[in-house]
Amino acid sequence: MQQSRMVDAPLTWEEIRTHDNMSDLWIVIDGYVYDLSAWARRHPGGRKVLEFYGGQDATEAWLSFHNDKALVQKYMKPLCLGKLEGENPQESDPIRKDFRQLRETAEKMGLFQPNYWFYAAHLAHTMLIYLAAYLTVLYGGDGLMVVLLSGVLLATGQQQAGWLQHDFGHLSVFKTMWMENLWHLVTIGLLKGASSGLWRDFHYRHHAKTNVIEKDPDILEPPLFVIGDIMPVEEAKKSKKTLPYNFQHLYYIVIWLFVPYHSSVFLFSIRRQRWQDVAFSMSFYAVFLPLFLPQLGLSKTIMLYIVMRALESQWYCWVTQMTHMGLEVGREKNESWMVMQVFMLYLHYRLVIDQACRTLL
Question: Structure pTM?
């Protein structure tokens, strides 16, 4: 990468660390320094994920988040300030070196090559679940148990569509960006009624700073919830009057029923002028209402929708929170992305193995 802009100050870590906010944002990628101050708001993955790495080395995160690196580098070239002066401490990190070697080996073995038949089968079985939900109402009538059963099937279809859209959202299936974006819009918009842009904004931040308080949006935070060792202590210091957190696993179920996530989908998309998200999100309702409204009427269609969303939300949140609660939750330590990911995975699987052993014993 050649230098495209000139700066007066030497590009040392002492200088780079002072440029760590949205109005003055520098990051280091593969030994080169980039000024993203004016460009961050146009970042397809959201501006906050860039802000998290202000004044830091983002090489490993960049490598993991971008498949078509040659295309991305074309956009990065005008933002390059020059080569980092002095030694980069992370370059000598043995875990980082091992990771790069492992990644290169996996790429040569073709382990990152997707199986399109798998995704076709996943899409087909998701659509079959949705079809079963409709046929349940079509032939079962509009009784309460029928509505509940159809709601369970719809929630299951929603969750399966969620796993499917996840891979498209990570740009890990197709070789071209437009195909990834199109199928992400289809699977998260048409099949779920959600927003591609909102999901990426949240999920990329989660992967950028996993389990970091106030940065990982997957962590349910105070004042309603606390997890880990740090949150409870900090919340207790703020006020003697706190919620009964020892019962949060119970009131969590009730509170989450009233979280207006899907209304925020439209607000986010409109505010960011992501009209394609609005269109695909609305397409879900353009299919859902004509299918179920004639069979159930207005009141029971609303009931069906609430059952679907309530079960889907609980399912989704239990899955995401269970992957967090057994791991360390803390403040920003400016650790290498790779070190943080390896450490989290180690703790996660150590926890799974320990729990399995205790169950067997």
Answer: 0.80
CB-CB contact of 169 with 192 (8 Å): no
Q: Give the highest mean pLDDT range of 54-58, 83-87, 128-132, 206-210.
A: 128-132
Say which residue, 266 or 301, is predicted with more confidence: 301
**H or E element: which one contains 360?**
helix 337-360
User: If DSSP codes are grouped into helix, strand and coil, which group holds residue 25?
Assistant: strand
CA dist list (Å): 84 to 4, 12, 101: 14, 6, 23
pLDDT of 117 = 95
- One-character DSSP codes across 172-200: -S-SSHHHHHHHHHIIIIITTS--HHHHH
Residue 289 predicted with pLDDT over 90: yes
Question: Residue 206 is which amino acid?
Answer: H
CA distance 313 to 183: 22
Q: Which of 167, 188, 165, 170 is nearest to 65 (CA)?
A: 170
Supply the mean pLDDT for the chain: 82
- pLDDT tens for residues 93-102? 677 777 778 7
How far apart (Å, rounded) are the C-alpha atoms in residues 134 and 358?
43
Report the percent of the chain where pLDDT is more than 90.
32
Identify the residue whose tokens are 């099937």. Answer: 153
**Cα pseudo-dihedral 316, 320, 323, 324, rounded to 10:** -150
Name residue, tokens 């394609």. Answer: 276
Angle at which helices 144-169 and 177-185 cross, to 10°: 170
Distances (CA, A) of 47 to 15, 36, 42, 233: 22, 10, 7, 31
Residues 6 or more apart from 85 whose CB is under 8 A from it? 10, 11, 12
Inform me whether the pLDDT recorded for 220 exceeds 80. no
In this predicted structure, what is the pLDDT of residue 120?
A: 96
Return the number of other C-beta atoms located less than 10 Å from residue 89's C-beta.
10
By the 8 A CB rule, do 277 and 185 touch? yes
Centre a 10 Å sphere on the Cβ of residue 312 and count the other Cβ atoms it contains. 22
- DSSP characters for 273-289? T-HHHHHHHHHHHHHHH
